[in-house]
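[step 3/7] fold_predict: job queued, chain A
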Amino acid sequence: MKGTALLIKENHTVTVLEDVNHEMYKELANQEEKKAIKIGENEVEFSPVYSVLWCEDAIDWNYGY
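[step 4/7] structure written:
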C-alpha cells in the first residue's frame, strides 16, 4: 500500500514525499532524532521533524491545499 508522507517541522513547514510505502512511513515515524530515508541507493536526511503523517493514496493538489 502506498501513500503520501508529510514531514512537519517545528517552524510549521512541511516536506511532502509522494509514493511512499507504509513500511517506509513507519520507519520515519519511529525515528526519534534523525529523520532519514533511503531512496534507491541514496540516503536522504531531513532537518529535525516535529511529526510525520501518512495519507493513503495521493493528495489531490488541485483541490485547493
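[step 5/7] annotate
The radius of gyration is 12 Å.
The beta strands are 2-8, 14-21, 35-39, 42-46, 51-56.
exit 0
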